Amino acid sequence: MPDFITVAKKSEIENGRMKEYRVAGRVIAVANVDGEYLAFDGICTHQQCSLAGGFLDGLTLTCYCHGAQFDIQKGDVLAPPATKSLGIYEVAVEGDDIKIQL
Question: In the UniProt record, does the keyword Iron-sulfur occur (predicted)?
Answer without folding.
Answer: yes
